[in-house]
Amino acid sequence: MFQQIPQPLRYAEALLQHFSGLARASSAEGLLSGLVEASSQLSGCELSQLYLLDSSHTRLTLSAEWLDGRPQPRTATSLPSDYDGEQLLQFCLCQNRVLSLTTLDDSLYATSFLPERAQPWRSLLCLPLLNAEQRVCGLLLCTSSLSRDLQGFADSLGQLGAFVIAQRQLLQRLHVAPHKPSQEPAAPVPCASSYGLIGDSPAMRRTYQLISKVLHNPVNILLTGETGTGKELVARAIHDCGLRRSRAFVVQNCASLPENLLESELFGYRKGAFTGAERERKGLFDAADGGTLFLDEIGDMPLPLQAKLLRVLQEGEVRPLGSNDTHKVDVRIIAATHRDLRALVEQGRFREDLFYRLSHFPIELPPLRERAEDILRLARHFADNACGLLQRDLCQWSDAALELLADYAFPGNVRELKALVERAVLLCEGNELLAEHFNLCQPAAEEHDSANLRQRLERVERSLLVDCLRKNHGNQTQAARELGLPRRTLLYRMSRLQISPANQ
Q: Domain coordinates of the chain in residue numbers?
């Protein structure tokens, strides 16, 4: 049986003993294991779990567990990357709030993160853990098979968890070898699925690396790149995987409205501010308060509005039309443009001070022709989505159609690829996409591609091999069988075309 909950004095003494014991831990693993043990003993709960977020803030991993008086072996078990299916954990993480349930009904709440046992779990306490920067970095759970109010343990266990997190960070810094060679490979970049994006090409991996740097830093971001490269998707990924994911993500295209309408849309207005203003209306800055405002085509914003936007960025204040008063807003600005803002600054069409305010952290998205390895994977994705929307069986791809796409320059980038594939699915009357289903402008490809015949054939062969390997999850034997090649021939062609396991 578990010990009874001690009286206040005995509880304080037990808490101090656990603090003292954790302070003597000499390893990060010992700290985490000691925290779940202490939490279980102090709360009198049979189960205590510790979940930690990874550096990309998208994956929640079970790092330590204490069950029925014993530590549980550590596994690689982790929740889905966006943990949307775990409502209880998502609530605590996104809202940064303590959750205490005295009647844990599994018919009302998804509790797949709790181990199964004959006697069901009845009460739960879930605490967000904060690091030195006061940002949520994990969750501490205490669960009992008895219906109990565990709220009273929240403050003390939260302090204990914060102490462990701080000690763990200190140990990690102390254990970094000072003579570490600079040639050591960098930490792996979070996979594309972590941000809801598609593509594993070197150009996209560099983009993921940049995204990971700004998820938890409240800097303004400027997304640049050609039309159709997916700037809004990247902006939404930054919002959805960052600290503001529980708040609003608001989008406004600055080129879609004339100056007066755009100003009232952004800042709002008071009743009687202009003809037709029959009631007060909040603007998009207020709608995005606490969240993210994505300003697309910022290069088309009129100069007078640029000055007002600069005021918001500098002071965090908004003054609605027709009002003499300002009020504070907490909005993260992500701007995007396909124009060269530096050239616009030199021409006097864009404010220089606003340019520097917006471009704290620029991210240039690569055109599709620079990420040829991703073309076939994107095409399959768009085709599958189109088939699902039309409620028809998934289409197969002919070699000629894949070769045609792999050899095209895509001046319209991902947007053009998506439109071409969706049109081809509509035209496809059988179950196989053929080259004639795609209406491609071949001269555009010749404009961007001066490769000779052998180079173009090798590029097509490389794309086909990489696509087949990915479809078979890197299994070379299965890929060779599907391609009708001996495995040794496949390995030879992989070597000749410089296809490494990282491409799989």
A: 8-174, 192-366, 369-503
Contact 318, 326 (CB under 8 A): yes
Alpha helices in 44-174 (DSSP H): 87-95, 154-174
pLDDT above 50: residue 406: yes
Element (H, E) at 7: none
Instruction: State the residue for tokens 């079970």.
Output: 62
Per residue in 215-252, is it b (16+ CB within 10 Å) or e — as a string? bbeeebbbbbbbebbbbebbbbbbbbbbbbbebbbbbb
Residues 6+ apart with CB under 8 A from 488: none
Helices (H), 28-86: 28-43
**Per-residue confidence (pLDDT) for residue 451, from 0 to 100:** 61
The secondary element (H helix, E strand) that includes residue 471 is helix 453-471
Same fold, 192-366 and 369-503: no
For 192-366, CATH number out of 3.30.70.270, 2.60.40.1610, 1.10.10.10, 3.40.50.300 equals: 3.40.50.300
Superfamily of segment(s) 8-174: GAF domain (3.30.450.40)
Coil, strand or helix at 406: helix
Rounded to an integer, the average pLDDT of 292-315 is 92
Q: What is the mean pLDDT of the chain?
A: 83
Residue 288 has pLDDT above 70, yes or no: yes
CB atoms within 10 A of CB 12: 12
Q: Are 43 and 155 in contact (CB under 8 A)?
A: no
- What is the sign of the dihedral through the CA atoms of 150, 153, 158 and 160? negative
Query: What is the C-alpha end-to-end distance of the chain, expressed in Å?
Result: 51
Segment 283-306 shows an average pLDDT of 93
Q: Is 13:41 a contact under the CB 8 Å cutoff?
A: no
Query: Residue 202 pLDDT > 70, yes or no?
Result: yes
Please determine, looking at this structure, whether the domain spanning 369-503 carries the CATH number 1.10.8.60.
yes
pLDDT tens digit sequence for 258-272: 888 899 999 999 888
Q: Is the pLDDT of residue 182 over 60?
A: no
CA neighbours closer than 13 Å in the CB half-sphere of residue 50: 32
Beta pairing, strands 292-296 & 249-253: parallel
Q: Which phi and psi (to 5°) does residue 451 adopt?
A: -70, 150
